């Protein structure tokens, strides 16, 4: 099967104090349809830079990104905008990703307006469907996003990402700011949406507990490079690199037995 | 263990804002013991942070307290007898001052030291929170430090008044898991060594089960149950506590 996303030799440096500091160095990976790849690493490992490179919010210094067989780095702005319908991103802080005064239905309808040819009436119907799909009470549709809880806002962000029928969603620390119980609900939602639509996820996180819950495969990043990759089970059970070992050791564990 | 504080039918309401005053905390009966590590666990809106602020006399002016909060000794002075660490360490550090000056000021005020001694003690504190090169860190501004370093500096500032009680409100929620583990270990060992009472607020029941002496579970402003980690994790008396444990099993190890 041809991969949905194929990243090869991706490299990016940022200018700091007049010299280039490498953030991402020669990174390659791929993701298949309906698959979840987790990019895991500590703060500063380059994982959020990768999220922005893959969605072309920033431009790499070198390397290639094939998405649905097309080299997206060569796409002109108009073609890239069209491509974004199928390549979406959800950020950690659902608050900052929205106009805070927008209503829930407005935030989702705007995405439909940009990415689909739906009429206003069709958009209204589709907003209701999407709210239903992410299990948000339709009564919330006309509420301001500002009034919602963190978990509800992240459901809106996911509904908005799903609005344009993407084949890949990049989730950049999308559950990191949520309480454990809300985190579990959102991961459950993401898995159900994947079963229903075969959407693939590039899941960026520092938390291997979350990886265990959602990922098929894992790439471990440190200092801008992939230092280890494998199935989620393998990496969690037998981490090889010091980075992966530290990440495994750091996951909070329920006290296992009476002490 | 000696009793430090007894709460009886304790509650907090926030007044104003158009609505009726909202009850953030209601009918809490809880004893806190000197030198224990007590975790307050719950989701957003459970009242755990309100209780922490009440203990530290840091409630906003529109908050109304009722019931009793009886300290065994005199009520602790904020900053001196009781230190705090918050989720966002930026909030307790002055963005336009070197962090060493912020810490030294707490030492001067609460330990009544002169400038030179205060700066020397500041360097010792930065070393105690295991920051390499304390002299360089002391001269740094908050924005020049990483999130983990800032939280260690905030911890040093919280300890600068030589408190008997440390209140830590989600101190690691904004940190990655590796840094989180290191900061937890640090808080645990510093409070143990000094014989301090630790009140640790978290939404993560697994995280606190690793070090707390007792866990108090809160929901919607009420204390659901309190017990040792063994009691709470292996024999939770309430369905809500079981729900929190199940949520952890779904997204943790």
From TrEMBL, chain A:
Similarity comment text for this entry: Belongs to the ABC transporter superfamily.
Sample GO molecular function, one term: ATP hydrolysis activity
Protein name in UniProt: ABC transporter ATP-binding protein
Species name: Tianweitania sediminis
Record-annotated ABC transporter domain positions: 5-248
PROSITE patterns in the cross-refs: ABC_TRANSPORTER_1, ABC_TRANSPORTER_2
SUPFAM superfamilies with a match to the protein in the record: P-loop containing nucleoside triphosphate hydrolases
Domain of life of the organism encoding this protein: Bacteria
Keywords, in A-Z order: ATP-binding, Nucleotide-binding, Transport
GO BP terms, alphabetized: transmembrane transport
InterPro entries (alphabetical): AAA+_ATPase, ABC_transp_ATP-bind, ABC_transporter-like_ATP-bd, ABC_transporter-like_CS, P-loop_NTPase
Cited Pfam families: ABC_tran
Automatic annotation (TrEMBL), chain B:
GO MF terms, alphabetically ordered: ATP binding; ATP hydrolysis activity
Keyword Membrane: yes
Alphabetized Pfam families for the sequence: ABC_tran
Topology with respect to the bilayer: Peripheral membrane protein
Gene Ontology cellular component annotations, sorted alphabetically: plasma membrane
Entry keyword set: ATP-binding, Cell membrane, Membrane, Nucleotide-binding, Transport
Compartment annotation: Cell inner membrane
InterPro entries noted in UniProt: AAA+_ATPase, ABC_Ni/Peptide_Import, ABC_transporter-like_ATP-bd, ABC_transporter-like_CS, P-loop_NTPase
Domain ABC transporter: 5-245
Similarity field: Belongs to the ABC transporter superfamily.
Protein name: ABC transporter ATP-binding protein
Species name: Tianweitania sediminis
């Amino acid at each position: 099967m041809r991969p949905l996303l194929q990243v090869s030799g991706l490299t990016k440096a940022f200018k700091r104090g007049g010299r280039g500091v490498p953030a991402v160095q020669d990174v390659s990976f791929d993701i298949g349809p309906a698959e979840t790849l987790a990019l895991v690493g500590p703060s500063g490992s380059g994982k959020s830079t990768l999220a922005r490179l893959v969605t072309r919010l920033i431009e790499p210094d070198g390397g290639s990104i094939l998405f649905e067989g097309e080299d997206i780095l060569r796409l002109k702005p108009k073609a890239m905008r069209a491509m974004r319908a199928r390549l979406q991103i959800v950020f950690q802080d659902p608050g900052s990703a929205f106009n805070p005064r927008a209503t829930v239905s407005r935030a989702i309808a705007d995405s439909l307006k940009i990415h689909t040819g739906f009429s206003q009436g069709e958009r209204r119907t589709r907003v209701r469907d999407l709210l239903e799909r992410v299990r948000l009470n339709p009564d919330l549709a006309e509420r301001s996003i500002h009034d919602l809880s963190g978990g509800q806002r992240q459901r809106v962000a996911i509904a908005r990402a799903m609005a344009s029928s993407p084949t890949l969603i990049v989730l950049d620390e999308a559950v990191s700011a949520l309480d454990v119980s809300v985190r579990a609900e959102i991961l459950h939602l993401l898995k159900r949406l994947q079963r229903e639509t075969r959407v693939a996820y590039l899941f960026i996180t520092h938390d291997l507990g979350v990886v265990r819950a959602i990922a098929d495969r894992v790439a471990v990043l440190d200092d801008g490079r992939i230092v280890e990759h494998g199935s989620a089970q393998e990496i969690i059970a037998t981490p090889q690199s010091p980075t992966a070992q530290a990440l495994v050791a750091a996951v909070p564990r329920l006290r296992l037995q009476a002490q | 263990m000696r009793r430090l504080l007894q709460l009886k039918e304790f509650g907090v309401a926030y007044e104003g804002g158009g609505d009726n005053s909202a009850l953030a905390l209601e009918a809490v009966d809880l004893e806190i013991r000197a030198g224990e590590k007590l975790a307050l666990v719950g989701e957003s809106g459970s009242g755990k942070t309100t209780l922490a602020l009440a203990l530290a006399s840091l409630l906003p002016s529109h908050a109304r307290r009722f019931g009793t909060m009886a300290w065994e000794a005199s009520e602790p002075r904020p900053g001196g007898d009781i230190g705090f660490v918050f989720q966002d360490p930026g909030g307790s550090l002055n963005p336009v001052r070197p962090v060493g000056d912020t810490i030294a000021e707490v030492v001067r005020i609460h330990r009544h030291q002169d400038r030179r001694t205060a700066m020397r003690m500041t360097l010792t504190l930065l070393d105690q929170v295991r920051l390499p090169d304390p002299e360089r860190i002391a001269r740094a501004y908050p924005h020049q430090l990483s999130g983990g370093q800032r939280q260690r500096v905030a911890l040093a500032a919280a300890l600068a008044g030589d408190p008997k009680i440390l209140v830590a409100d989600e101190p690691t929620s904004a940190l990655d898991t590796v840094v989180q583990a290191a900061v937890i270990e640090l808080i645990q060992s510093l409070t143990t060594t000094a014989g301090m009472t630790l009140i640790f607020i978290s939404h993560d029941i697994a995280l606190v089960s690793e070090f707390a002496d007792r866990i108090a579970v809160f929901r919607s402003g009420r204390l659901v149950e309190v017990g040792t980690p063994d009691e709470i994790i292996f024999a939770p008396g309430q369905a809500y506590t079981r729900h929190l444990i199940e949520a952890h099993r779904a997204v943790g190890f």
